[in-house]
Amino acid sequence: MNKYQYYAGRFFILLATILIGIPIGILVGTIYFLRIVLTYPFNMYGLAVDKWENKVQIEQADIWTRHIARMQENKDRN
Questions:
Q1: Could you write out the DSSP letters of every residue in 12-77?
Q2: Cα angle value 21/26/32 (rounded, 5°)
Q3: pLDDT per position as a tens digit, 44-66
Q4: pLDDT averaged over every residue in the chain
Q5: Using an 8 Å Cβ cutoff, are 65 and 73 in contact?
Q6: How many structural domains does the chain have?
Q7: How much is the pTM?
Q8: Which domain holds residue 48?
Q9: Chain centre distance of CA 66
């Protein structure tokens, strides 16, 4: 194999990997983007419902349970 064939082969491999890699990268990026776009609202809804349910439970609890929950919340903030 002479020098010309060696560099021509490497150049062909470079072009092939670019031509294969770019569409696959675009496809994977698009699929990931769609997955995030479709699941994000449901994740936020779940977090909001959990937070609301916790708040309602604390509001309905007795005074000592609310005090302990408030102390825990303050401890988590600091």
A1: HHHHHHHHHHHHHHHHHHHHHHHHHHHHHHHHHHHHHHHHHHHHHHHHHS-HHHHHHHHHHHHHHH
A2: 125
A3: 999 999 999 988 887 777 788 87
A4: 90
A5: no
A6: 1
A7: 0.57
A8: 3-77
A9: 34
42 within 8 A of 35, measured Cβ to Cβ: no
Comparing 78 with 69, the larger pLDDT belongs to 69
Q: Which of 45, 66, 44, 68 is nearest to 57 (CA)?
A: 66
**Cα(43)–Cα(17) distance, integer angstroms:** 37
**Size of the chain, expressed as the number of residues it contains:** 78
Residue 72: the pLDDT is 87
